[in-house]
Amino acid sequence: MTTYHSIQLLDCANKAYTAHNHYYSMEYKKKRQHHSADPFSREFNQQLRFWETVIQRVLAFHTQAEEKRILRYCTETGYANYREIDYIAKAADTLTFCEIKLKQCAKKQELPSGYEQLSKSLAIAQCASLAKHGVLITVNLAALFGNKSLIPCHELATLNDIQLSLSQTTTGIDVVYIDITQIIPFAKAHNIITQEHIDELIESYHDYQNPMRRLKVQPPLPINNPFQELRSPI
Q1: ∠ CA(57), CA(198), CA(67), 5° rounding?
Q2: What are phi and psi of 74, to 5 degrees?
Q3: What is the Cα Rg of the chain in Å?
């Protein structure tokens, strides 16, 4: 069994953490330097990262946010390891770790994406009594992209449901699914996003799904047939 020590929460701008990220970013670029990148996939993933920050800001309107979201810990090796928590809510002198997943067309699963990641973060945090409760939020984007939702409406959470879940002090992980249509009106009303942000996400999704849609339609070329020209009347 792995033992953890030197566990603490750090600010995202912590120098040791940023240096750690820079090192592994450079290593990744070296490995990928001879691989071509799909620009449409990259753009869509950048859009998803932006919308993750939108969800974080919406949650911050409903709960008190803990600014230090980097979980630092050491194992038997002695080296420092880092895990970024998407959102941490403070309530009644306790912390709740939150993992955010945005899905093109979410569906309920026995072990949802992000569950194991959140479980490990909580297991580490519990060793230092930092947190014992977690919330896994899956945001269903299907409505934006014109996809059929695979989750019945009565099984989707509201922002108030998530607020209640984030304020729990029990041990364990709550798994909630929420539709993006629940989030957009609130985010718009509080000037977190504009219609332009929504349109950019939709466009990047369709480009990612079908890059050929960006090809310009060329006018038909004239038939290159010199013998047909000879037959033409003078």
Answers
A1: 15
A2: -125, 150
A3: 24
Other C-beta atoms lying within 10 Å of the C-beta of residue 71: 25
For the stretch 106-147, pLDDT in tens is 999 889 999 999 999 999 999 999 999 999 999 999 999 999
Find the angle CA(35)-CA(51)-CA(124) to the nearest 5 degrees. Answer: 80
Nearby residues of 223 by Cβ (< 8 Å), 6 or more positions away: none
pTM of this prediction exceeds 0.85: yes
Nearest to 45 by CA among 209, 206, 205: 205
- Alpha-helical runs (H) found in the chain: 15-31, 39-62, 115-127, 142-145, 159-166, 180-189, 195-209, 226-231
Q: Report CA-CA distances (Å) from 135 to 10, 66, 131, 153, 172.
A: 20, 15, 12, 20, 9
Token readout for 69 is: 């979201």
Question: Could you give the angle at the alpha carbon of 87 between the alpha carbons of 82 and 90, nearest 5°?
Answer: 110
User: 70-74 and 94-103: which strand pairing?
Assistant: unpaired
